[in-house]
Design goal:
The chain has 322 residues and is α/β, with parallel strands linked by helices. Helix content is 33%, strand content 17%. It has an eleven-stranded mixed beta sheet with strand order 1-8-2-3-7-4-6-5-9-10-11, with helices on both faces. Helix 9 links the parallel strand 13 and strand 14. The two termini are 29 Å apart. The structure holds threonylcarbamoyladenylate and magnesium ion (MG).
Length: 322
């Protein structure tokens, strides 16, 4: 069975009001949305994604009134960042109010909140009387979806409706910043650490590199296609190798530095632009599986700005599945 795909906001509202599941476009990736204040609706998200219950969800809102209902306190620095980056790809972890079900937060005393920028997401949210819990609309551990078709390909039989808002412009998930203690980045994403620090000063980076239930969701292995991804090493290449270069420019440098082998080259960005690379990333990884590729060598981005978020995704996508 496949889901209906369309642009019908009122139909989406109807489904969500009745506790159903709608895939919703955001500027980062497509989300699998349900009424975030209704535990039985939220439970359907975990079931559809096969997501472990220890991995908490983000609540999506369209206005500050809803924010004040679901969190108990907004520190001054968080307010400043919200003014600057909302709507947009920045998620805040804040102390939760009693209204938020434990299922959403996996029993934590904090809740993750974000105001998405996609016009359809905003319109949908503004027609609802509750926030939407929405993780990325992919089976747990797989590559996140950046088109309605990506959602259909993998979760089509598990969702009531897919709201089609075109290609996601950012292409990687929101940055998550926690204000439980001192401001700390838990996940790199669409807003860079430098952008944040230019506004509120130094923040710590606790993007963990290990499976650690204390930092749920930040698992070693995530975002992974079935195709095996290997770090690019010249001495492992041969004529049948397939390489995902960052850009034609970095490819040129790689051959100049190491010597040349004629093999198959793919690129994350044709124009050597990190915004373009981020927007293409998940589609490119999905293509490997669609084409039935079994092994691809991966070149990392330069590790600064958005490149850090891209590399974070690539590293986790490369990590071995258990
Ligand atoms: O861009 C995005 O953030 C997308 C779109 C759909 O908005 N959503 C998304 O959701 O990436 P998801 O569920 O794939 O990732 C949410 C992450 C999880 O890794 C989870 O561990 C973390 O947010 N998270 C949620 N609540 C948290 C909390 N209270 N404390 C720490 N981490 C939390
Ligand atoms: Mg996800």
């Amino acid at each position: 069975m496949r889901s209906d795909i369309g642009q019908d906001i009122l139909k989406s509202v109807e489904i969500l009001n009745h506790g159903g599941l709608v895939a919703m476009p955001t500027e980062t990736v497509y989300g699998l949305a349900a009424n975030g204040l209704d535990p039985s609706a939220v439970a359907k998200i975990f079931e559809a994604k096969n997501r472990p219950f220890f991995d908490p969800l983000i609540l999506h809102i369209a206005n500050v009134d809803t924010l004040n209902q679901i969190v108990s306190n907004v520190p001054q620095k968080a307010k400043i960042l919200m003014d600057y980056f909302w709507p947009g790809p920045l998620t805040f972890v804040l102390p939760k109010s009693n209204l938020v079900p434990d299922l959403v937060t996996s029993g934590h005393a904090t809740v993750a909140v974000r105001m998405p920028k996609h016009p359809m997401a905003i319109e949908l949210l503004s027609k609802l009387s509750f926030p939407l819990a929405a993780p990325s609309a992919n089976p747990f551990g797989y590559v996140s979806p950046t088109t309605a078709q990506h959602v259909q390909d993998q979760l089509g039989n598990k969702i009531d409706y897919i709201l089609d808002g075109g290609n996601c412009t950012v292409g990687i998930e929101s940055t998550i910043i926690s204000f439980e203690y001192e401001p700390s980045i838990l996940r790199l994403g669409g807003v860079t650490q430098q952008q944040i620090e230019s506004i509120i000063g130094p923040v710590t980076l606790s993007v963990n590199e290990h499976s650690n239930p204390k930092a749920p969701g930040q698992l070693d292995q995530h975002y992974s296609p079935y195709c095996k991804l290997k770090q690019l090493k010249f001495n492992e290449l041969n004529h049948s190798s397939i390489i995902l270069f960052y850009s034609p420019e970095t490819e040129k440098k790689f051959w100049e530095t190491n010597g040349f082998i004629n093999c198959n080259a793919l690129y994350l960005t044709m124009h050597h632009q990190s915004i373009e690379a981020a927007a293409n990333l998940f589609s490119v990884l999905r293509e490997f599986d669609k084409k039935g590729l079994t092994e691809v060598f991966i070149e990392f981005a330069e590790n600064e700005g958005l490149g850090m978020a891209i590399n974070d995704r690539l590293k986790r996508a490369m990590a071995k599945r258990d």
